[in-house]
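Is this the right way to post structure tokens for a design question? Let me know if I should format differently. Anyway, here goes:
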């Protein structure tokens, strides 16, 4: 992501961060950085391989990227 001319990149990041916070961080109250790291790894695996996305016609990012 570059600063100038890459506004589309910012749109995806601005949508992803609230999802991560609301669907994972706020619900789990991690006590240590190790727990946070483990929890986020699990969340991103779920986000990319199991969570259906309306903007992808109810497919996962992995399905869209790898055209499964």
């Amino acid at each position: 992501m570059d600063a100038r001319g890459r506004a589309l990149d910012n749109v995806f990041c601005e949508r992803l961060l609230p999802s991560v916070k609301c669907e994972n961080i706020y619900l789990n109250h991690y006590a240590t950085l190790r727990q946070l790291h483990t929890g986020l790894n699990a969340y991103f695996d779920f986000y990319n391989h199991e969570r259906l996305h309306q903007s992808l016609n109810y497919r996962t990012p992995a399905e869209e990227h790898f055209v499964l």
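Format looks fine. Someone answered above. Worth noting: Residues 7-66 form one domain. The mean pLDDT is 89.
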